[in-house]
Amino acid sequence: MTATGTVHDYELSHLRALEAEAVHIIREVVATFERPVLLFSGGKDSIVMLRLAEKAFWPARIPFPVMHVDTGHNFPEVLEYRDRRVAELGLSLVVASVQDDIDAGRVVEDTRPGASRNRLQTTTLLRGIEEGGYDAVFGGARRDEEKARAKERVFSFRDDFGQWDPKNQRPELWNLYNGRHRKGEHIRVFPLSNWTELDIWQYLADEEVEIPSIYFAHKREVVRRDGMLMAVNEFVQPFEGEEPFEALVRYRTVGDATCTAAVESAATSYAAVITEVAATRITERGATRADDRISEAGMEDRKKEGYF
Amino acid sequence: MEILRFATAGSVDDGKSTLIGRLLYDSKAIFEDQLESIDRTSRQRGEELNLALLTDGLRAEREQGITIDVAYRYFATPKRKFVIADTPGHVQYTRNMVTGASTADLALVLVDARKGIVEQSRRHAFLASLLRVPHLVVCVNKMDLVGYDEEVFEAIKHEFRAFATKLDVTDLAFVPISALHGDNVVHRSANMPWYEGSSLLHHLEEVHIASDRNLIDVRFPVQYVIRPRDDAHHDYRGYAGQVAGGVLKAGDEVVVLPSGFTTRIAAVETMDGPVAEAFSPMSVTVRLEDDLDVSRGDMICRPNNQPRVTQDVDAMVCWLHDSHLQPRGKYALKHTTREVRALVQDLHYRLDVNTLHRDESATSLGLNEIGRITLRTTQPLFVDEYRRNRTTGAFILVDEATHATVAAGMIL
Known about the structure:
A: alpha/beta; 4-stranded antiparallel sheet; B: 412 residues
C-alpha cells in the first residue's frame, strides 16, 4: 500500500487513518514536551509504536530515547531483536532493571514457584522515569485490551507518584491534547489507543516489519498450567504432577517470561496469524497473561499505582 | 476499509448497553473470556447475564451501577471498522457527550418506544448538532414492547423531525429496533415487515462519510519543523502536520500565516514516498520552494482562500469543569497547533440545552453548561467557522493554575 491510499475518492483506509492519528500524537509530544521517552520491550505493540515514530520524523532520526523495563525474565529472541532494532535506528536505549530494585531492597520479590515480577515493574518504571527526568512517556497500550484501558485518555496525566486517577481525567476533545504538567508530574501518551490487536497485525504485515520469531509458530517444550501453555525454560520449571510436552505454539503477547503463555498455532506467516486473530474467541490478555487473571479490577488497581 | 466513529447516547434504562452488547456480540467483538467474566460477576450478584457489565470499566462503576466516563469500544465488519464512543447518560452527561461527539462521524440516539421523545432525547440531538456530527440516527428501541406497531414508530419519527428542524441536522435517519431480541440491529426483522429501511448495522456500514470532511479550504497547521542534522539532508526543512482541510499537492501556490509570504509547495511527502494529494486527516510533511521562516503554530493555506486572522473570537463553549467560567477570566487557549492566552470579554447568554432558551442575564457558566462568549487573545488565531471546519473551528480552554481542561469551544 502506498501512502496516498485511494486518492480519487479521498478515502483513507483504516490503517492509514490510525497511522495518521498516531503520527500526529507523537509529533505533538515532541513539539510540546522537553524529555519524551518511548517504552520499547521488543513486543509487537512497541514495535508498531517505534515504526510510527520513525515515520513521524523521517528523514530525521527519532528524537528521543527508548526505555526497556527489564524484569530479567526475558525471551532471548526478544532481547536480541530489541538490541538489533535500537542499533538500526541509532537510538539510545535506557534499561531500567527490576533486579536493581530487588538488589537495592526497594521491592521484595515473591520467590514462591510460579510467582512473577510483573507487579514489581511499576517501581522500576517510575524510578526510570524519575531518573531520566522524562516528562512524556509513550506506551503501547490499546483501549481494546482491557476495560480500565478503554476509559483512559491518549494523554494520561500522572501525579508526582506516577498515579492514575481514573475519576479525574481531563476531557479530551477533537485532536487537541492537553499535556500541561508541573515538574515531577508526567504524561503517559498512548498513540495506539484506537488500534485493535487485528489492526496491529495487519499493519505489521502491511509494512513488512520484522518481529521477533517467537510471534510465529515454532516447536517448544511446554507445560499446561491453569489452562495455559507455559514454556519450560530457566524461569518456568514444571510443578509436581505437570508433564512437559512438545507443542507447536506461538506467542500472542510478549511480556515477562514467567507469566506469559503461548497459544497452540501453526501460523508461520503474517497472513496465517491474521486469519487466526480474526477468528479467535478469547482476548489476548485472557489467553496469555496469568497476571491479568488476578481479579476483576486487576489492571485498574495496577494502573492507579503507576503501571503501564 | 474506512473507519466510522460514532457516539452513542442514552440513559440507564433505554437499552443502550444492550444495543452495544448486541452489536459487539453479533460482530464477534466480544470474546469468550469477557463473556465468562461478566457472567461470573452477574451470578455473584444473583442477576442474569448483564451485558451492561461489558461497558462498565472501573470499580466504582460496577459497584454503583453507573458509567462515569466515555468508554471506547471497537468492532469491525468486512466493510468497516467502527469506533464507538460510549457516553453515559447521567448528570455528567453533557461533558461526556460533547467529548465523544467531538470526533464522531455519526451520533446514535436511543428512544424508548414506550416513552417516546423525552427531554433527554432532545438534549442528545441538540448536542450532536452543536458538535456538528454529520449524521444522526434515531433508534426507536423496545419495539417488541409496543407490539412492533408501525404507528408508534411513525409518531415518534414525526415528532422528532419537527424538533430537528430547529437544529442544524443534515442527515437524519430512523430505525425501529429491539436491542434485546436483535430486531433490525444486524438483520432486517421479520417482525416489522412494514419497515422498508435498512438494519442499523447495514446503515452504519453504508452511510457515506468521505465527503463530510472539508476538501475545499486548504488548511495545514504546521505542527513541527523537521530538520535532520546529518550530511545527507543538510538543507532539508520539512513542515510536518496533519491536514485540516482541502487538498494539498506539489506545485500549489500557498501563503504562510501569519507572515503572509507566498511560495509554492515543492513536495508533499512521507517516509513511504511522495504523496500525490494530501487531504484530511493525513499526517504528512510539506516542503516549500522558498526558504521562509515557518514555525509551529503557523498555517499554510491558499492565497485566494484564507482563514480569518483574528484576536477576537466569538464562540459557543461547553463548560467542562467544576470551577465556573469567570467573566474577565484568563485561560490558555489551544487551537490547532497554536497556543495563546485568552481573556473572556463577554458572556452573551447561557443556553438551556433542554428548551434552547437563551438566558441573557447569566453571569457565569458552570459544569455542563453551554453559552456564547467572546474572547480576546494575545496573539492572532487563524480560524474558520466550526460549521465549516471542525478542526480549524475548534479550541479548548485550559486553566493556567490547575492545568485542567475547562472548556470546549466552537467558533461562530
